[in-house]
Specification:
By secondary structure, the chain is mostly helical. The chain contains eleven helices and no strands. Helix 1 packs across helix 5, helix 3 packs antiparallel against helix 5 and helix 3 runs parallel beside helix 10. The protein binds zinc ion (ZN). Zinc ion binds next to loops.
């Protein structure tokens, strides 16, 4: 799962650059990856996630220009995120496969949820890289990630109905989660006159809250995103004075940690 995540992390980082070029109306970069400085076309051995970056010490093989930290961080980050989803979803699903197979519909929904979660994490990584590099969030990608979050919540509601669970309680919990995550981000965005938080952040928070579908875990995601954001960004915020915090990457970290903490599967299937 880590290797798969690292490969998609590499893909996500390239996609951020491609979106940037598309939005700015520049000539597309072509099919193969190139050095952003000298346009050297990368060979396959320059493209191995994590390993190539370390071997090249973060520099272009040809011109020696620095590649940047977004590449290695997105590969390591998404690799770790995939490994964590593997831990709480994929491993238990394989382990309890024969038990779960007695309810084929529930199993199908569970597998669909895992796949959609992984796709959502890839899109969130593209958004995080884009946010960290250029301080913006492309609207189309935000729409995509909110849609994914809504479908994941829809699947959770469906599972609850199949298990004769309390749908109303789930809906109240999910809506409360949206209020906690997206509501607070929106309030900070408005109250600070768009200085402390970007306009896209509350939409990103909305997508995450929908996918979590639980007020308690949404609170955890919010708390962890803020805590990590403060610890990591505070030194540079103080140094540069008034500066917008690019909250996107931290929201994603909070999201993954909340899912991991929630270990949704056992409670979901009462195993
Ligand atoms: Zn180069």
């Amino acid at each position: 799962m880590f290797v798969l995540g690292a490969v998609f992390g590499s893909f996500a980082c390239c996609q951020a650059w491609r979106w940037r070029y598309r939005i700015q109306g520049k000539k597309p970069l072509g099919k193969r990856s190139v050095c952003m400085s000298c346009k050297y076309t990368l060979k396959w051995y320059d493209n191995v996630p994590v390993i190539s970056w370390i071997m090249l010490r973060g520099k272009c093989r040809k011109c020696g220009k620095k590649i940047g930290y977004a590449e290695i961080l997105s590969e390591l980050g998404l690799g770790t995120a995939f490994a964590m989803i593997g831990h709480v979803y994929v491993v238990p699903t394989i382990y309890y496969w024969t038990v779960l197979a007695t309810k084929p519909m529930s199993l199908a929904i569970l597998v669909a949820t895992i796949v959609l979660l992984l796709i959502m994490l890839v899109v969130l990584t593209i958004l995080s890289v884009y946010d960290a590099k250029w301080g913006e969030l492309p609207v189309l990608l935000l729409v995509l990630v909110v849609s994914l979050g809504a479908v994941i919540l829809g699947l959770k509601i469906w599972t609850t109905i199949l298990d004769d669970g309390d749908v109303l309680q789930l809906l109240i919990s999910a809506v409360s989660g949206v209020a906690i995550l997206a509501g607070v981000c929106w309030a900070i965005y408005k109250a600070s006159n768009e200085r402390l938080m970007g306009g896209g952040d509350w939409i990103l928070a909305l997508a995450i809250a929908l996918a979590i579908g639980d007020w308690w875990l949404s609170l955890w995601a919010m708390f962890l995103a803020n805590l990590l954001g403060d610890i990591i960004m505070m030194p540079s915020l103080i140094q540069k004075g008034n500066h917008v915090l690019h909250f996107g990457p931290f929201l994603m970290i909070g999201f993954v940690l909340a899912i991991w903490l929630g270990s949704a599967l056992p409670s979901l299937f009462n195993l």
